Amino acid sequence: MTAATYLDRLRPAGASLRAMALLLLLLAAFFISTRGFSSILLLDNIRQAAPLGVVVAGQALVLMMGRLDLSVGATASMANIVLCSIFNSDMANLVPAVAATLAAGTLVGLANGIMSTKLRIPAFLATLASSLIIAGLVVFFTNGSPRGAVPPAFRVITEGWLFGVAPYSALIWLVLLVALLLLVHFTMLGRKMILSGANVVAARHSGIPSDGLIILSFVLCSVLASIGGILLSAITGMASIGVGNNFTLDSIAAAVIGGALFAGGVFLPLGAMAGALILFFVQSLLYVLALPPAAKFIVQGLIIILALALANLKQERSQ
Amino acid sequence: MIEIVSPALKPMPAEFPRLAVAQVSKAFGANKVLRDVSFSVRAGEIVSLVGENGAGKSTLMHICAGSFPADGGAMALDGAAFRPASPKAARRAGVALALQETSILPDLSVGENLFFGDEPRNGLGFIRQKRLHEAADAQFAEMGFALKSTRMGSELSAAERQMVEIAKAIRLKPRLLILDEPTASLSSHETELVLAAMARLKAQGSAVIFISHRLDEVMEAADRAVVLKDGALTLDAERGAFSRDDLIRAMVGRTLADIFPARPADLAVAPVRLSVANAAAAGLKPLSFSLRAGEVVGFAGLEGQGQRPLARALSGITPFHGGEIAIDGAPIRLTSVARGIAAGIASIPDDRKHEGLALDLPIRMNVSLFALSRRSSWGWLAHALERRFAETARQRFAIRSTGIDQPVRQLSGGNQQKVVFARWLAETPKVLVLYEPTKGVDVGAKTEIYRLIGDLTAAGVAVVLISADMLELIGLSDRIHVLFEGAVTGTLARPEFSEEAIMRLAAGPEGVLNHAA
């Protein structure tokens, strides 16, 4: 294969580029209002956007399978509680704390996947139900007042910078995105997932084990939501109820801004990244402009409309 | 269609045709769809409009029915200039169009659908349900349709929805009725009923234009055939002045004999490829048959006589109950699609859009699944191999497209079907199961698919052909089994092939057709 065809294959999809363009516009507005570009400020925002970004990657994967996960927020919140309570501010508990958090996430994903395939419950209802159950269990086990915190040494994953130039959390995010990109677009497994997401019946009739692949996508999504929760815990430092709840709607919004389709069959890691950053920078921009928090929702809504309108306009022209 | 309250079948001076179309042309962008088309329909005449997909038939009919104006040319209805500004205006003038895609509302009863917007009402404006259902049932009885007015729209099969759609158009007794592929989803028996309804309308002085891909019904019902090819008129002939071959030549520039591959005279010495012994399935009674290498065995029958269960069981989607299936003498357990594929079975589904293709993905990703899964090492996707394979497949199967990255949705039906074939034929299978392989495919693509089947059998592939297309069954098969209520009621050898012989067996031992008639 020549280098040219190799590069051609890596060329991002139109939707990813549109999301990136939108992000650049937003960044321009942001740095104009902060009076001057600052790479530190940019990277610091990326650092803080990483927890959402990791969750969005998972959501985009489930959307690719033509499903929706409404439990990512509850899962991330649960991850925070599990992590903090097992850690109990002692770095010696690192392995059990992280392992238990990821295991809990895996269980949620398995439950979601099985409900939406074997039990044939529509995914958005199945995951809505599991998010309610998770939130209920969290309150039950903590009596509403969770205890525990992550040890300061652990917080390095979101507060630390590699060689002082790249935040660890951004690197974690990047590594996970690249891993998903490789899985979906460079392996046979991923190809079967795309085919199955684009038309599940046709995939089954071609001998693709679609149910298993859907369950896999839910498991990966919940694990990523748990990782998002772990990163968030490293930022906040302590256990509290419902810290990740905003992730549910934010992740869907970001994935859609990044070109994901509810119809499935599309996975754009670059778009998912841009979508998460757009949502985060909107927040930062409004903060810089000292606008009320309510404006965030309005702007977020407008951006979703803008992103989808652009996508539809493009489609109509091509037809 | 409510606007035509009074059909007004006034006797017209005989010199004026019901509809005259003169030098109509139409272009969509740079694409010239119709070029100076002229033809006419007389009152009391049935005209069949024939042509490949994309020949411009639907565009022409939509212009007649007022959906959009022509770029050039003129039309006259009973001698008066006819320039319908909208479908509504055309209907008011007495021109009704029944489309292939039906507009049956699922939450209304059949009768309410039939009378939609024109229901019999009492003084308070309430619908007189009883009267409505009586009138609807009376019309169905007149047309010979086995439909109950009280059934819900959602319960209807595709064929029944089509019948209601036709009944809706006919009920208004239009001056000119245009039917766009009315019989595409109907069984032979239902087709007969639709043709009979057209004949009644003709006897009442209406004119009928019907688009059809089925040449037998054109031969049977049309007083005149009009053929379009690439937007231009290539044949306009009275009944008796054209043959089936004339139609095909006018459509594609080839004759029938060239369409089907020649069958080898004797296959009795070839080894048995597939044998099915005593295997049953839901909707299918215990069935036994076998295929030799290079043989095509057809399965005929009226709609819903076990064709679907048979196709699904043979491709491993729903398992057979009991019985024994063997390929090349080795018994196999056909409990999943994957096992079928491993045993060398390839199967082409009847509903390519829902069961065969990922429409929004490019050709490349649709064709390459099996080619890749056999040759990808360590689970990594061989992108270069995929592009090479897709490019080869695009040429081998003559998939007309802008390139291997074009989404399959943008292709015509025939080219979509070729994509399905290309996926399954990445490697030559032992057994190929075809279920309505040319449904909704134009004659050009059909010819290519038939040639492909001929090539495959020459290479020793055994083909199971389950089809409702009699011409196709007769032209391709070496043997035809006829299904009735899930069982084979008879088997025909090639010398015995005829549509009559198949229909006799398809009617079952009691002869349901005679009962229904």
Topology:
The complex is a heterodimer of chains A (319) and B (517).
Chain A (H helix, E strand, L loop, with lengths): L2 H8 L3 H20 L5 H26 L7 H16 L6 H24 L5 H20 L13 H4 L1 E2 L3 E2 H19 L1 H11 L1 H6 L4 H27 L10 H11 L11 H20 L5 H25 L1
Antiparallel strand pairs in A: 1-2
Helix pairs in contact in A: 2-13, 3-8, 3-11, 3-12, 3-13, 4-5, 4-6, 4-11, 4-12, 5-6, 5-11, 8-9, 9-11, 12-13, 12-14, 13-14
Chain B lengths: L18 E10 L2 E11 L4 E5 L6 H8 L7 E6 L2 E2 L5 H6 L2 E4 L11 H5 L14 H15 L14 H14 L4 E5 L7 H16 L3 E5 L3 H7 L2 E6 L2 E7 L5 H9 L3 H4 L12 E10 L2 E9 L3 E5 L6 H8 L9 E4 L2 E3 L4 H7 L1 E4 L3 H5 L6 H5 L1 H7 L7 H14 L16 H12 L6 E5 L7 H16 L3 E5 L3 H7 L2 E6 L2 E7 L5 H8 L5 H5 L1
Parallel strand pairs in B: 3-8, 3-9, 6-7, 7-8, 13-18, 13-19, 16-17, 17-18
Antiparallel strand pairs in B: 1-2, 1-4, 4-5, 9-10, 11-12, 11-14, 14-15, 19-20
Helix pairs in contact in B: 5-6
Protein name (chain A): ABC transporter permease
Membrane topology (chain A): Multi-pass membrane protein
Keywords (chain A): Cell membrane, Membrane, Transmembrane, Transmembrane helix
Structure description:
The complex is a heterodimer of chains A (319) and B (517). Chain A has 319 residues and is mainly α. Chain A has one domain: Orthogonal Bundle (ABC transporter involved in vitamin B12 uptake, BtuC). Chain A has 14 helices and 2 strands, in the order αααααααββααααααα. Chain A has a two-stranded antiparallel sheet. In chain A, a hairpin with a 3-residue loop joins strand 1 (161-162) and strand 2. In chain A, helix 2 (14-33) runs parallel beside helix 13, helix 3 (39-64) crosses helix 12 and helix 3 (39-64) crosses helix 13 (269-288). The radius of gyration of chain A is 19 Å and the shape is globular. Chain B is α/β, with parallel strands linked by helices. Chain B folds into 2 domains: 19-104 and 156-259, 3-Layer(aba) Sandwich (Rossmann fold); 272-357 and 415-516, 3-Layer(aba) Sandwich (Rossmann fold). Chain B is 34% helix and 23% strand. Chain B has helices at 57-64, 87-92, 110-114, 129-143, 158-171, 188-203, 215-221, 244-252, 256-259, 307-314, 337-343, 352-356, 363-367, 369-375, 383-396, 413-424, 443-458, 470-476, 499-506, 512-516; strands at 19-28, 31-41, 46-50, 72-77, 80-81, 95-98, 176-180, 207-211, 224-229, 232-238, 272-281, 284-292, 296-300, 324-327, 330-332, 345-348, 431-435, 462-466, 479-484, 487-493. In chain B, strands 6-7-8-3-9-10 form a 6-stranded mixed beta sheet, with helices on both faces. In chain B, helix 17 links the parallel strand 17 (431-435) and strand 18. Chain B is globular, with a radius of gyration of 25 Å. The two termini of chain B are 30 Å apart. The model of chain B is unreliable at 1-10 and 511-517 (pLDDT under 50).
